[in-house]
Amino acid sequence: MSTSLRRHALSGSTMGTRWSAILHAPPELDIPAFENALARAVERVDRQMSTWKPDSDLMRLNAAAPGTWISLPRELLQVLTRGLEIGRLSGGAFDIGVGRLVNAWGFGAAGSIPDKEAIQAALHERLPPTHTVLELDAPGARARKQAHFDLDLSGIAKGFAVDEMMRTVKAFGISDALVGLDGELAASGTTPDGTPWRIAVEKPDYELRSPLGTIELQDAAVATSGDYRHWIEVGGTRLSHTMDRLRGGPIDNAIASVSVVSSSCMEADAWSTALMVLGRAEGRALAEKYGFDALLIERSDGALRQIGLGRVFETAPAGVPPSGHRFDTLSPRKV
Predict the structure, then answer these.
(1) What is the dihedral of CA 272, 275, 277, 280, to 10 degrees?
(2) Which end of the chain is more exposed for a tag (fewer CB within 10 A), N or C?
């Protein structure tokens, strides 16, 4: 890499968190214009897909009566389309129609206190898979619901926003950059010394923020879903913000976090959520079926157990020290 390239670290607030970008670019790059373009990219996603903005395009669709066609922007339709596809492929484990559950359990814009009546209703009413009750008309840029339900894109929209940031990076002719939003990251090219970007995977700890290990990322994305940042305590039990449509409430398994590496951050975001919902056995089977690079962290008797799948997170054979950058008992490889 040319030594004339300059390092820039940019960031801004959005979606209740912060976006960030680290890049190496030539001196002539208009940094203010680039920073504004990144901010506009994530703001566009937030404006279309937020459940915290009453006037967002997603909330317009949520408020519509069943059977009513609602015109939607291209980006939102793209996310809805892929969300429904991943819902089908995951057997309903990933579902974008659990907004009512999110609010009932106190994780949505409706308030942070669980609504006992709404919870009881949710536990007795099994929502149908959203891909069976949401109709999309891509050529007409519209959608309509076939039943009463609320959409929530928190398991896929941030990943899409990261992909939009990376598209902005490419549009400005930048080849080496790392962009992120909360636990979702995408890397392009390499660092100045020609090595992949080194990404820390966070330890799923309720109290402290510390790395569990690192992976090397090059022209790829990673997303992590977990139970340790957004949770509520009910009767002395911590309940995750990740909803299981079939249970009518938060997931109830021992999975603490799931990290997925993919070419698309939107894909990684949604699939990490699906694996969280499925749990160890079914999640592992699904990851192996589709050939995912995934790291499942399970809570077991007060300890954390790592289940590495795919070439990025493969487990070193017994008695053989991990090679490359050590990731506890795993030896991640660059992707």
Answers:
(1) -140
(2) N
Q: Cα–Cα distance between 205 and 256 in angstroms, integer?
A: 9
What is the rounded CA–CA span in Å between residue 92 and residue 95? 6
CA 113/CA 177 separation, integer angstroms: 40
- Beta-carbon contacts of 9 under 8 Å, excluding residues fewer than 6 positions away, are 20, 21, 22
What residues does 233 pair with on adjacent strands?
A: 238
Tell me which residues of the chain have a pLDDT lower than 70.
Answer: 1-3, 228, 230-237, 315-335
Tokens 């106190």 label which residue?
A: 106
Of 225, 170, 200, the C-alpha closest to 25 is 170
Q: How far apart are the first and last CA of the chain?
A: 19
* 62: nearest Cα among 87, 23, 96: 96
pTM value > 0.85 = yes
